[in-house]
Amino acid sequence: MDAIIIGAAETDVLGRNPDQSVLGLNVEGGLRALADAGLEPGQIDGVAGAYSPHGVAHALGITPRWVDSTNVGGCSFLMHVRHAAAAIAAGHATRVLVTHGESGRSRAGTVPRPRDPQSWTGQFEEPYGAKPPYTRFTLPALRYLHDNGLDETALAQVVVAQRRWSSRVPRAGRRDLMTIDEVLAAPALAWPFTVPMICMLTDGGGGLVVTASEHATAEQLRRSVKVLGTGESSDPLLVAQVPDPVGDSAARRAADDAFAEARIGRSEIGHVMVYDAFAHLPLIGLECLGLAPVGKAAELVAAGETSPGGSLPLNTNGGGLAYTHTGMYGMFAIQEAVRQLRHEAAAQVPDVSTSAVLGYGGMFTASSVLILARD
Amino acid sequence: MSGEPKPVPRPTPETRPYWEATQRRELVHHRCDGCGAGTQHPRAICACGSTDLTWTSCTGRGRLFSYVVVHRPEPAFADEAPFVLAIVELEEGVRMTTRIVDVPADPAALPLDMDVELRWLERGDVNLPVFAPAAPEGT
Ligand SMILES: [Zn+2]
């Protein structure tokens, strides 16, 4: 595959921004990505996003020849990059703008989501009090811990490790270092998940420009990041029916496809982003990526291998747990991978040239993986 | 009482047999006659390729597969917190999200793989299948 990312940027404000709507956040994310790439809106002919990409195109004066409004939750933006790469290879577009904007905290210009008692979740989950993601996405965690001889300490270790990263990142929302005991002693919203094991809820957005080398200028190529491999899959809608998060799962299928396409081995990965709405996901995600044997990711985290200076730097912006989490975090995982590969990150990993990004969407319902690289 | 009513399921044409069975206090699952695999909600075609799928009774026995203890629920459920939100794996192999009732909302009382059995939670004119620790054999 020849696809490259030539523009990547986040909104100026991450956190609380009641003065900007969802559309406004998408527009700002898109404009900043265009500026990063040195492009004008008129040079974009493809648009993608989980929130009204056609509306974003209109607001930016873009007339697209290709539109992708895939919305499977938080990993949608990884799929947008994958779909954009395919569209560019097919000649359906030359430069695709992917945007994200979400007013997760302030709810400015946010589409209301009333209960839907006829939906699968409305029938089989919500009547039990299982609507907030921290009561649903978290449900398989105890099983995972139990089957691997672990307890909630393993979840706390993830927070401890990621705070070591976020403490070095000025834009991160939660920057205080924490000890295991402090994490475990924090209020439990849904035991075993205490507040620091649960993602932030913020306003923000970002944008990416995807193209192919043949359409890029020398200056764009100089800072470009290659899309080496991609994958996506889906699983049942109800969390109880997900067969096994670390077994034959959407994330594992997406990872296997992405690595096969990238034609690189797991040992060549120098940096990892795993969608971490909750603290069990980095453990499960590392195992789905094949970067840790099943049940062994917690050992890597406890040994400091995912922390600064470790062999497998993970969620180096602090992740959804500590950097930002607007609701659909996937855009920010990609942004951090691009920054690391460009050697422009706040907590830069030395000499990094490959990154694996794993996203989840709709709890465990959907997953997508990108393998990114820089010469 | 909090202002917002607790949500109740509204059946679709596909799920009506499941919810009609709950009116009789019967728990059913959608079972493949080809390979025996089952799901809580209906499917058009089993993963094995079979279209012979039948609503079938469950024994109501299962095991505690996983859970969280919800301390901060959405407002409609504030009067019930803390409560045990669980995945139960039925004898038929089907996993479903449900509640564990008649037990302290305390991990010490909730070992994984504990045997559980069916109970019914009345919510207006809807019966929700929930589970409680199974009575010892022979009682
Ligand atoms: Zn079958």
UniProtKB/TrEMBL annotation, chain A:
Family annotation (InterPro entries): Thiolase, Thiolase-like, Thiolase_C_2
Highest classification ranks of the organism: Bacteria, Bacillati, Actinomycetota, Actinomycetes, Streptosporangiales
Transmembrane segments: none
Taxonomy, superkingdom: Bacteria
Record keywords, A-Z: Transferase
Thiolase C-terminal domain segment(s): 231-374
Region: Disordered, residue numbers: 101-127
Protein known as: Acetyl-CoA acetyltransferase
GO molecular function, one term: acyltransferase activity, transferring groups other than amino-acyl groups
Automatic annotation (TrEMBL), chain B:
One Pfam family this sequence matches: OB_ChsH2_C
Domain ChsH2 C-terminal OB-fold: 55-120
InterPro entries to which the protein is assigned, alphabetical: ChsH2_C, NA-bd_OB-fold, Thioester_dehydratase-like
Name of the featured protein: ChsH2 C-terminal OB-fold domain-containing protein
